[in-house]
């Protein structure tokens, strides 16, 4: 028993050792990893080294706050301590204070600093992020302050934690960031016009706006408005000189407002970039709006021109499209209409993509504006799901060709021609030149008659109420004479005369003949009714007194002898 207890004790001790060994190793790893997480350099070239620093460079927040404070006060010698000039000075002598002033101007004018996101800890651990963030609780030695575009490529403004031999870890603007400052300042710095302004106008008014910016914004808007007014008037003048039935007039009418909008947005952008380069917050708000206006105007011009040319082509060929045997043109213009709607959707999506990419929305205040609009857009899309379904239905009609441009259809009890297939509605022209606007869903979810889908010829029929004593053979003979003599009846042998119903008052006789197309058939239908009624009247007038057969149905009146 004692040996068994000793064996169990030895086994437990072994298990404890096996479990404790990894934990001890882990503790040693933690202890070793507790050293400062920094970039080690032989010498920190920031004009001050790591001793007697004029700025608080121990945390990211301290670096940005003291640097911006020194820049606002014009203490460029102190501000230079926040920059690592190693890469920049490798190419020759550098005016450190000038580069510090340029970097301050870039941060002040062209970026919106996320002050709440800057850690106030030497190790830059983000204590505010959620536990699901992969960087939660992780020390960092490099942070991104912002991004500026240069020659089509993003240039990141970064701060880094560096330590020179024998010194303390410090947060400074990284070497590569400092090396990019002169080139970025050429693009985003003040223009010569701004530099020539009096010093009082360059002072801060409120927020980050200088007094000259407060005065410049209305002037920029005024310049855009003047350009738009002149453009609107010029296009209007060209329209007055053009023939209203010409293609040029239709195009000018279509692009009138889009080109006016482009003139406003383009002038606004040119004046801003040439004379006034606004500071960060104003730039972050205006850039997305400016790009939105320019792209929207460009998209509207493209779509308006396509729409005008398509309408011009189809309106000029209305009679030809409605010709009985012109299936090829009807198919072509219907497919073209569907393709136009697809191109419209592609152009709109491309425009949205250009706005998102060109605005660099993820790094500007405009992202919040567009994000809010996107949330509202989701609500609108949900509310407009029927309209989206109609758009897909219009494309379906275009490719399935169930209703083609120029087709004759029977819709809601009315004879119409299809004039236009839009995104959500079809435009129909009735025989008496009225226009019916019908939702496309009616042509995909409900039945309708298409009289020209395969064969344009149409069996025209009329129904007459005749007296029960009428001699149908006499009228049939008159009907045969009509179909043989009328030029619009394409197959006289196919014509029929049939008694289809009867009641106590009259019998119903139907006469049918084939016409080449619906338009011709309507005229033939009217002539046939007129001819047969005239024949029935002649036969009825020659019948004499009853009981000789009559043709026109009569209302009989029975008189009762009051006394008998």
From TrEMBL:
It is found in: Membrane. SUPFAM superfamilies: Sm-like ribonucleoproteins. GO terms for cellular component: membrane. GO terms for molecular function: mechanosensitive monoatomic ion channel activity. The keyword Mitochondrion does not apply. Keywords: Membrane, Transmembrane, Transmembrane helix. PANTHER family: INNER MEMBRANE PROTEIN (PTHR30566:SF25), YNAI-RELATED MECHANOSENSITIVE ION CHANNEL (PTHR30566). This is Mechanosensitive ion channel protein MscS. It comes from Aurantiacibacter gangjinensis. The lineage of its organism: Bacteria, Pseudomonadati, Pseudomonadota, Alphaproteobacteria, Sphingomonadales.
């Amino acid at each position: 028993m004692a040996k068994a207890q000793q064996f169990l004790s030895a086994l437990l001790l072994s298990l404890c050792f096996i479990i404790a060994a990894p934990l001890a190793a882990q503790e040693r790893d933690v202890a070793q990893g507790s050293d400062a997480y920094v970039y080690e350099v032989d010498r920190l070239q920031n004009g001050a080294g790591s001793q007697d620093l004029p700025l608080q460079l121990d945390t990211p927040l301290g670096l940005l706050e003291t640097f911006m404070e020194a820049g606002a006060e014009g203490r460029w010698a102190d501000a230079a301590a926040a920059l690592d000039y190693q890469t920049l000075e490798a190419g020759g002598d550098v005016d450190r204070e000038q580069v510090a002033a340029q970097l301050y101007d870039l941060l002040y004018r062209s970026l919106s600093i996320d002050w709440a996101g800057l850690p106030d800890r030497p190790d830059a651990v983000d204590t505010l992020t959620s536990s699901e963030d992969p960087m939660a609780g992780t020390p960092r030695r490099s942070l991104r302050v912002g991004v500026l575009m240069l020659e089509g490529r993003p240039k990141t403004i970064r701060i880094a934690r560096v330590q020179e031999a024998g010194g303390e870890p410090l947060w400074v603007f990284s070497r590569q960031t400092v090396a990019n400052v002169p080139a970025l300042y050429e693009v985003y710095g003040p223009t010569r016009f701004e530099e020539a302004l009096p010093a009082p106008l360059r002072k801060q008014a409120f927020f980050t706006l200088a007094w000259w910016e407060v005065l410049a914004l209305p002037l920029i808007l005024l310049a855009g408005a003047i350009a738009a007014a002149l453009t609107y008037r010029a296009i209007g003048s060209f329209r007055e000189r053009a023939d209203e039935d010409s293609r040029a007039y239709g195009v000018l009418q279509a692009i009138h407002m889009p080109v006016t909008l482009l003139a406003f947005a383009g002038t606004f952008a040119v004046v801003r970039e040439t004379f006034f380069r606004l500071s960060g917050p104003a730039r972050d708000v205006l850039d997305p709006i400016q790009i939105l206006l320019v792209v929207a105007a460009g998209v509207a011009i493209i779509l308006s021109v396509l729409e005008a040319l398509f309408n011009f082509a189809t309106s000029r060929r209305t009679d030809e499209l409605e010709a009985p045997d012109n299936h090829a043109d009807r198919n072509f213009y219907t497919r073209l209409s569907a393709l136009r709607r697809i191109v419209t959707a592609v152009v709109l999506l491309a425009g949205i993509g250009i706005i998102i990419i060109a605005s660099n929305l993820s790094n500007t205040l405009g992202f919040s504006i567009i994000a809010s609009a996107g949330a509202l857009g989701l609500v609108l899309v949900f509310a407009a799901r029927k309209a989206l379904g109609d758009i897909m239905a219009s494309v379906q009609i275009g490719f399935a060709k169930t209703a083609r441009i120029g087709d004759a259809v029977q819709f809601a009890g009315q004879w119409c021609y299809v004039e236009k297939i839009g995104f959500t509605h079809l435009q129909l022209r009735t025989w008496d030149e009225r226009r019916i606007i019908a939702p496309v869903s009616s042509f995909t979810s409900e039945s309708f008659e298409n009289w020209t889908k395969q064969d344009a010829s149409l069996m025209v029929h009329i129904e007459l109420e005749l007296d029960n004593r009428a001699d149908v053979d006499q009228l049939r003979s008159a009907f045969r004479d009509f179909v043989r003599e009328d030029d619009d009846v394409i197959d006289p042998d196919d014509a029929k005369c049939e008694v289809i119903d009867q009641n106590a008052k009259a019998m119903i006789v139907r006469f049918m003949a084939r016409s080449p197309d619906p338009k011709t058939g309507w005229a033939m239908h009217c002539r046939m009714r007129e001819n047969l009624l005239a024949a029935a009247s002649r036969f009825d007038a020659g019948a004499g007194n009853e009981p000789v057969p009559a043709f026109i149905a009569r209302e009989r009146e029975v008189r009762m002898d009051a006394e008998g």
